[in-house]
């Protein structure tokens, strides 16, 4: 099963990792590469009920 980080745009942890490995360093760059946060309806899609932005920032730190 995929582990989504952005549920609204079905972006996985792996997608974030590969964006960072390819050189994306900021949330803005990761969003541009992965297509995350393009269609936000987080309250409905994300089990946490909030947007994935913070989680993406955490992953950028983890993978950098
Ligand atoms: S979970 Fe990423 S924009 Fe909603």
TrEMBL record:
This is Ferredoxin. It holds the Pfam family Fer2_BFD. Coiled coil: none annotated. It comes from the Bacteria. Residues 4-62 form the BFD-like [2Fe-2S]-binding domain. InterPro entries: BFD-like_2Fe2S-bd_dom (IPR007419), BFD-like_2Fe2S-bd_dom_sf (IPR041854). It comes from Psychrilyobacter piezotolerans.
């Amino acid at each position: 099963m995929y582990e989504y980080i952005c549920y609204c745009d079905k972006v996985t942890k792996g997608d974030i990792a590969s964006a960072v490995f390819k050189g994306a360093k900021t949330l803005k760059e990761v969003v541009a590469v992965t297509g995350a946060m393009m269609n936000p309806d987080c309250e409905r899609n994300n089990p946490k009920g909030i947007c994935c932005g913070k989680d993406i920032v955490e992953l950028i730190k983890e993978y950098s």
